[in-house]
Amino acid sequence: MTIKISGAPCCWGVDDPKNPYLPNWKDVLREAHLAGFSGIETGPYGYLPLDKTILKEELEKNQLTIVAGTIFDDLVSETNLPNLLNQVDDICTLMTQLPQDQAEVNQKLKTPYLVVIDWGHEERDYAAGHPERAQRLSNYDWRTMISHIIQIARKAAEKYGVRVVVHPHAGGYIEFSDEILKLTEDIPYEVAGLCLDTGHLLYSKMDPAEWLEKLYHRVDYIHFKDIDRDVYQQVMNKKIRFFDACAENVMCPIGEGVIDYKEIYELLAVKLKYEGSITIEQERDPRNAGSSLADVKKSVAFLEEVGFNK
Asked: I need a surface site. Which of 16, 89, 133, 160 has the fewest CB within 10 A?
């Protein structure tokens, strides 16, 4: 089995492209190479330059491929649809002209993927990780969001040959088990797959190994992260936004938290025969990006020790 270890700019605190404390994108690519990543995601729309020539040069210099791009935005509001579809054009146009990996024998679909995440709702952000108190969308708003995702997926596939994978994310309107299952009922697999994230599953009260196996028939791509048990218990007792919890270091280097990656390796590599990329994410405050390289090196070393390949 070949499971390549990739990374994402969020390991350097890059989640909001407007954050004034973001590290320089060239430094992120350089450290991604030093960490041992084979590929990287583009991160939030607007962080990496949209000039393919400039970006391609830096990727090649650092021996990195592009694994995925991300739409991290409000998927619910009808007025935001033109913006979402514009992002499809910009992100897919860029990704498909950048260095890419060869597909592995058992890889379901080739990279790059377009990871689609609902975000931007304060009422849900403060309820991240709390399925018992988080409000759900009305039927109308849910149908609207599903329609938007389908339009995004069809445009990406038909115009650019890019596969959309929907990422359940703490603090958005696709987070908890009931929402994930409803999504799989309402969007056919031929339209869009899933990107499951071990850390977000656990943060939102789901067992990562159980849900990876349960939904593997819909999973095209996987994110890895780990959670510090003590910090998690603390933030669950606070009224706190998801990324504020990340700033308190709820996410830790893989192998130092509560997720059993030996179990996940046995599941993915041995039982399910997963091949392709997994992407390490360790969200943090970008003002703490000085420790990013050391942390991602720890994560890569631990995963390689468990059995995952670069």
From this structure: 133
- Looking at the predicted structure, is the pLDDT value of residue 84 above 70? yes
Between CA 200 and CA 224 the distance in angstroms is 9
For 273, half-sphere exposure in the C-beta direction (CA atoms, 13 angstrom radius) is 6
State pTM to two decimals. Answer: 0.97
Structure tokens at 286: 């970008």
CATH of domain 3-306: 3.20.20.150
Q: Terminus-to-terminus CA distance in the chain, angstroms? A: 11
Domain boundaries, the chain: 3-306
Residues 124-151: pLDDT tens digits? Answer: 999 999 999 999 999 999 999 999 999 9
Picking from 98-102, 134-138, 239-243, which range would have the lowest pLDDT averaged per residue?
Answer: 98-102
Average pLDDT value for residue range 248-258: 97
Rounded to 5 degrees, what angle do the CA atoms 306, 300, 291 make?
140
- H/E stretch holding 155 reads helix 139-160
Q: Which helix (H) or strand (E) holds 70?
A: strand 65-73
Concatenating the DSSP letter of every residue in 196-264 gives EEHHHHHHTT--HHHHHHHTGGGEEEEEE-EE-HHHHHHHHTS---HHHHHHTT-EE-TTSSS--HHHH
Residue type, 155: K
**71 — pLDDT class (breaks 50, 70, 90):** very high
